[in-house]
Please model this.
Amino acid sequence: MKQLIKMIFAASIAAASASAIAAGDIEAGKGKSTACAACHGADGVSPSPMFPTLAGQHSDYMVKTLKDYKTGARKNPIMQATAAALSHQDIADLAAYFASQTGLKTLKK
Ligand code: HEC
Model:
């Protein structure tokens, strides 16, 4: 019984750390976002209608979109090349960072 409890405990710690890896890190995403700034703007607020604003976008949406570019389910030559170089952790971090930005809400006011 004691052994079983230990096993369950170990399994739940493993599950918790696995979800920590999948969750985005805002600070890490901020560092990685410099690669996106040229087109999407320094704070994710795009300087041009050619590029979508990312600030304030839902992170789930961004994760899905970047994975779709990666697999080719969504096609755009620029973003497919960009997303191809991103790991799943990069995607999670970038999505967390841009979702934390309030630029889009500011724009709408
Ligand atoms: C060379 C310019 C350029 C760079 C650099 C770039 N993007 Fe993009 N991005 C675009 C363009 C153009 C689109 C619109 C593509 C389309 O219509 O599918 C886009 C679209 C997107 C979208 C979809 C937005 C939406 O509303 O559906 C996301 C998310 C995104 N980019 C994230 C990123 C991230 C994260 C980075 C940095 C790792 C990055 N982009 C770097 C040009 C760029």
Notes: The pocket of heme C is lined by residues 35-36, 38-40, 51-52, 54, 62, 65-66, 74, 76, 78-79, 82, 94 (CB under 6 Å).
